[in-house]
Amino acid sequence: MSTFPSAQLEALVAVVDEGTFEAAARTLHVTPSALSQRVRALESSVGQVLVRRASPCTATEAGSVLVRLGRAQALLHAEAAGVLDPGGAGRTRLAVAVNADTLATWFHAVLADVAGWQDVELRLSVEDQAFSADLLRSGRALAAVTSDPVAVQGCSTERLGAMRYLPVVHPDLLARCTDPDGRLDVSRLPLVRFNDKDALQEDLLARLGLGPAPAVHEVPTSTDYVAALRVGLGWGVLPEPQADDPALGTDVLVPLPHPDAGTLDVDLHWQRWRLDSPLLDRLTASVRAAARVLRP
């Protein structure tokens, strides 16, 4: 059975995390030449290309397997070092994927917990809940909040609850899209989505039997997305906690005027690597506690 030197796996993980060989070399405090040699040696030992030399660098399918191994190895080594030498152990990096709506709402309680942990360095990746499981497959994350109930190979999964979304719109936009006889055709309203992976608005239109919106705006940050709805850029869906948050000024928004608009519930799941890791166990307990605010 092949063995993979820790220094080579560490170099591979650093390149994928940092995006370039130069940045990875700075992170590991080695020269770019030395780091490149480690990655090439690992590629030679497995007989496959592990890194796509692009901007940014990304792992190939074979590389993703070894990124996962390298990240798991680093976590377990760090935890072992912490047990053997509690005073000398540094912080262990935990890479976690969450969707923007989760990060902007109930995940704040997890951040508050981690703020009191002196042995953890949290690295969050923001990804749509329908795609965050991909970061587990590629080895970019040790755990993820995802809408995919099917466990990624090597991971465990548990349902956290449902995030409810409310379709809302600014009254001024309704007025602009209402004809002189007072008739409003919802299909004439522009919509705002987070990015091209955000399909909630289009899914709702399909559910209502309506065609595509005449304009689709993209606003890829949670706070600015709310602001875009508040100025009437288009209609959109807001997580229930944001729609009810007076600090965001969402009281100016009204429900989308369609008798069947209703609400949308998105089931969220917690997937994590199946590792005997006290740190991952602690993080999982924090996520479970924070997710109690979700709908059952």
What does this protein structure show overall?
With 296 residues, the chain is of the alpha/beta class. The protein has 12 helices and 11 strands. Among the domains are: 1-87, Orthogonal Bundle (Arc Repressor Mutant, subunit A); 163-265, 3-Layer(aba) Sandwich (D-Maltodextrin-Binding Protein, domain 2). The protein is 40% helix and 20% strand. Strands 3, 4, 5, 6, 9, 10 and 11 form a 7-stranded mixed sheet that branches. Helix 1 (6-18) packs across helix 3, helix 1 (6-18) crosses helix 4 (61-84) and helix 6 runs antiparallel to helix 12. The chain is elongated and about 75 Å long. The protein starts with 5 loop residues before the first helix and ends in a 6-residue tail after the last helix. The model has no long low-confidence stretch (mean pLDDT 92).
Q: How many strands, which pairing sense, and closed or not: the largest β-sheet? A: 7 strands, mixed
If helices are DSSP runs of H or I spanning 4 or more residues, what is the number of helices? 12
Mean pLDDT: 92
Helix amount: 25-40%
Measured distance between first and last alpha carbons: 46 Å
CATH topology of the domain at 163-265: D-Maltodextrin-Binding Protein, domain 2
> Going by CATH, what is the homologous superfamily of the domain at 163-265?
Periplasmic binding protein-like II
Under the CATH scheme, which class of the domain at 163-265? Alpha Beta
CATH architecture of the domain at 163-265: 3-Layer(aba) Sandwich
Structure classification? alpha/beta
Along the chain, the helix and strand elements come as HHHEEHEHHEHEEHEHEHEHEEH
Could you say which overall geometry the principal axes of the C-alpha atoms support? elongated
Low-pLDDT residue intervals, each spanning 5 or more residues: none
